[in-house]
Every structure is written in structure tokens, then in C-alpha cells.
């Protein structure tokens, strides 16, 4: 036998699977137990769906131990902001009742909660992009969901994560909150659309407040993130131009690891009573509380600081916490005005009515089909659900400044324009039979820029 042939046989023998002594153990099933956090998917069926990946509450997860069956254990969970879900519900109901919008078509919604967590966001996107009950993307196992757009208002890292995945499917990502300028790069994020103007629109307002009260010596505080660095880099020359002195400009992680950096500004902290702070929507009270405690421990404040922050929403529930009230001595922020703002001085009572409305308005059932790694609690809107009285309705929508509500109307108008233009084309060119074809997500995205 030739030497080369013998060598080939030896190599093939080495590549063959070899039997092992004993019985092979069965592989672990690709399955997870029910998530302790119990994330929910609220939905209402329709010809087209508008999806939402929203954060209704913050949580603190215990780390994976890798010594037991994997599960998402939660050490702390805050109250849920259910009004975000109700904003979807109210807007979709009104849109479907409007005779001038989308005749012969019904809009539905599907909302996944991500709790400000990347892992749950990935689970939500997997659930969203999978056709059928099992979470297996790119396989058509049932009737398509016909999702035309995904609404979100998350912090920058999660928004980028969402955009990276959705762009592969040419699905519009519509942000109802301030977003990073990074997401405006159409080469990397071609299907991202921002409803609100850029964050810089707030900066002249901050300067006007400082000049009005003659606060000409201030401190700048921002997180050590891309947005935080841009905030300090952009605002500092604007302040200097208006004769406002920046005593110090601090970038911090708002944690004890920056202890020395914060203490290094002690003398300057004592001179400054006004702090302009760039804050994250998901943790702004914790940031202010942390700094306030540090100041009280080492600076021995005789009076509280005045905090001026960038525009916020989603903080109504936090303000009733006695833990944070001492830290909010002189707290000023901005609200993006969309509709009339309805103030409610009995928030706990309103919150209780919201909880009751959500509990009674949806039928919920935990579902984990075969072949699915992770299950969801599916909550379907009841058909006989009635919208609450206008007085309560407006208070609920005011809790997020009508942002979600208005954004849904903008997307619905884009869908309506798209279908109207298709109808005109069908009248002009009869040979193209488009009557049975539904709109595609990328067609909606193009029209958003013309509204």
C-alpha cells in the first residue's frame, strides 16, 4: 500500500468518533425555568402590530452562580409604571375608532417589558422577531405578526442594542425619548427614527434659568459615558460665553469607586450651591441621592444644593419616596410639552386605580411552547375593555408627558399615508394588483420623515 494512502487512512481513523466506556449521559435540555421577574407581554391582535420594548420598573438581579439550575433571581424590584402600557392601549383604541385613519384595517400592539436590562431586552427581541409561538427567529412556523415598527425610549446602551438587531430585519425603531447622537449615524443605524429633537435644545433653557436667578458660579456633573462627556463638552463653552463660571466639571460613575475623585473637589463643592447635572432617566434620583449623601458627610452643608437636570420623565412614582425627599432641596428639571399637563396631588390613589385597571383589563397566562428556551406571561387585552373617564384618562397619559401616545399617532399617520399612496397607484396602474399585499416595515420608515 502506498505510504500516502496509509497516512490518509490513519488520519481518517483519528477523525472518527470513538466509543467511550460506560453509558453516555444525556445532554441538558435547552430550557430555563420560569423567570422570577416574570416579564410580561401585553398584546392586542390586529392586521398590523405596533410593538413596544419598554421599561416599567427597575430591578436588581443576583448574579448567576453556575452551581444550580439557571434562573433569573431578583434581589430588589421597584414599583411598575403601568401607565406606559396604558398609553399604548389608549392610543391604539382611539386610532382604530378614527374613521379617517386606516379604513378596513385594525391596528394591534405587542409590548415586552425589559426592566432596563440587556438580557431581558435580548429575550424580548427574540420573542418579537420569531414568527409563531416558539422563539426561533428566521423560521416561519405560523402566521406572520406583521409588526411595522418598534417603539422604545431606553438608555443609550439598550437603544443601540435594539437598533443593531432590528436593522437586520429592516424594522423601524422609533424612539419617543431623547437619544444619543450616535444613533443618528445612518450608516450604522439606518432604521432608527427619533421623534424628539436633539438633547441640545435644552441647553439654552438651562442658561436662561441660571441668568434669571443670577447663578453665575456653578458645578457640572455628568456620568462617565459618551452622552455625559458630550454634555460637559458642549455646555461648558456656552456657559462661558454667557459669563457663567464653571467651578468644576466632574465625570463620575456615581459609585464609591469614584470616592477620591469626588472628595478631590471638596473646596469647590463648598463654594458652589448650584449643580447642573446630566442624569440618566433610569437612575437619576439614585445619582442625586448618592452625591447629596457624600456632600453631607464631608462638606457639612449648611443648606441644600440646587439641582438643575436635563429633561426627565418616568419619575412621578419616585418622588413620593421619603428616602429621596431630603436630597431634592431645590430641584429643577424640564418637561417636553406635547399636550396639556394634568397635575394630580393624590398620586397613590391614581396609582392604585391604574393597577386595578391593568389587572382587570387583561387576561394573563404563562406560556412556554415546546422548543422555546424561555417562556413569557402573555396578557391579552379583553375585548370588552372600556377606557376610563376623561379626568383619569388625561392624568394617566400625563405621567409620561403623552410621549408614547403622540409617537403612536405619528406612526399611525405614516401607515395611513402609505396605504393612501398605494390606493392612488392602484387606481392609476391597474396591472399591479396590490390589494392582497400588506404594508412592509421599511415602507413606513421612509414616510416617517415626511410627517
UniProtKB/TrEMBL annotation:
InterPro entries according to UniProt: ANF_lig-bd_rcpt (IPR001828), GPCR_3 (IPR000337), GPCR_3_Ca_sens_rcpt-rel (IPR000068), Peripla_BP_I (IPR028082)
Signal peptide from the UniProt entry: 1-22
Protein's membrane topology: Multi-pass membrane protein
GO terms under cellular component: plasma membrane
The UniProt record lists the keyword Transmembrane helix: yes
Keyword Glycoprotein: yes
GO molecular function annotations of the record: G protein-coupled receptor activity
Subcellular location field: Membrane
Keywords: Glycoprotein, Membrane, Receptor, Signal, Transmembrane, Transmembrane helix
Matches recorded under SUPFAM superfamilies: Periplasmic binding protein-like I (SSF53822)
Residue ranges of domain Receptor ligand binding region in the record: 87-442
Superkingdom of this protein's organism: Eukaryota
Record PANTHER family: CALCIUM-SENSING RECEPTOR-RELATED, G-PROTEIN COUPLED RECEPTORS FAMILY 3 PROFILE DOMAIN-CONTAINING PROTEIN
Name the record gives this protein: Receptor ligand binding region domain-containing protein
Source organism of the structure: Laticauda laticaudata (Blue-ringed sea krait)
Taxonomy of the source species: Eukaryota, Metazoa, Chordata, Craniata, Vertebrata
Amino acid at each position: 500500500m502506498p505510504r500516502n494512502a496509509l497516512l490518509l487512512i490513519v488520519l481518517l481513523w483519528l477523525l472518527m468518533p470513538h466509543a467511550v466506556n460506560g453509558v453516555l449521559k444525556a445532554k441538558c435540555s435547552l430550557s430555563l425555568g420560569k423567570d422570577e421577574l416574570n416579564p410580561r407581554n401585553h398584546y392586542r391582535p390586529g392586521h398590523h402590530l405596533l410593538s413596544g420594548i419598554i421599561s416599567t420598573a427597575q430591578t436588581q438581579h443576583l448574579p448567576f452562580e453556575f452551581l444550580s439550575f439557571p434562573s433569573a433571581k431578583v434581589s430588589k424590584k421597584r414599583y411598575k409604571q403601568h401607565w406606559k402600557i396604558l398609553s399604548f392601549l389608549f392610543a391604539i383604541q382611539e386610532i382604530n375608532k378614527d374613521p379617517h385613519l386606516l379604513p378596513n384595517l385594525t391596528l394591534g400592539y405587542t409590548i415586552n417589558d425589559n426592566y432596563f436590562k440587556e438580557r431581558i431586552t435580548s429575550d424580548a427581541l427574540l420573542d418579537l422577531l420569531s414568527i409563531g409561538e416558539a422563539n426561533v427567529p428566521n423560521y416561519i412556523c405560523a402566521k406572520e405578526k406583521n409588526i411595522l415598527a418598534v417603539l422604545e425610549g431606553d438608555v443609550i446602551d439598550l437603544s443601540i442594542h435594539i437598533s443593531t438587531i432590528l436593522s437586520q430585519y429592516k424594522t423601524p425603531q422609533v424612539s419617543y425619548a431623547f437619544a444619543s447622537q450616535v444613533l443618528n449615524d445612518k450608516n450604522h443605524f439606518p432604521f432608527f427614527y427619533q421623534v424628539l429633537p436633539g438633547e441640545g435644545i435644552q441647553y439654552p433653557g438651562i442658561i436662561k434659568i441660571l441668568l434669571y436667578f443670577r447663578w453665575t458660579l456653578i458645578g457640572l456633573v455628568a456620568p462617565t459615558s459618551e452622552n455625559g462627556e458630550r454634555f460637559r463638552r458642549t455646555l461648558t463653552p456656552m456657559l462661558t460665553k454667557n459669563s457663567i463660571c464653571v467651578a468644576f466639571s466632574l465625570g463620575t460613575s456615581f459609585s464609591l469607586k469614584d470616592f477620591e475623585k469626588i472628595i478631590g473637589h471638596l473646596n469647590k463643592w463648598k463654594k458652589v450651591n448650584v449643580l447642573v447635572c446630566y442624569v440618566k432617566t433610569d437612575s437619576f434620583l439614585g445619582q442625586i441621592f448618592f452625591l447629596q449623601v457624600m456632600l453631607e458627610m464631608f462638606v457639612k452643608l449648611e443648606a441644600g444644593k440646587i439641582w438643575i437636570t436635563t429633561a426627565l420623565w418616568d419619575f412621578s412614582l419616585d418622588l413620593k419616596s421619603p428616602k429621596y425627599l431630603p436630597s431634592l432641596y431645590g430641584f429643577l428639571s424640564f418637561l417636553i410639552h406635547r399636550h396639556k399637563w394634568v397635575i394630580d396631588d393624590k398620586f397613590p390613589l391614581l396609582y392604585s386605580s391604574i393597577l386595578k385597571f391593568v389587572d382587570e383589563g387583561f387576561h394573563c397566562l404563562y406560556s412556554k411552547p415546546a422548543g422555546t428556551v424561555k417562556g413569557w406571561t402573555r396578557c391579552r387585552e379583553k375585548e370588552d375593555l372600556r377606557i376610563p373617564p376623561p379626568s383619569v384618562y388625561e392624568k394617566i397619559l400625563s405621567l409620561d408627558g403623552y410621549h408614547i401616545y403622540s409617537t403612536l399617532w405619528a406612526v399611525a399617520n405614516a401607515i395611513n399615508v402609505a396605504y393612501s399612496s398605494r390606493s392612488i397607484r392602484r387606481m392609476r396602474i391597474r396591472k399591479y394588483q396590490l390589494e392582497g399585499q400588506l404594508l412592509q416595515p421599511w415602507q413606513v420608515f421612509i414616510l416617517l420623515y415626511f410627517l
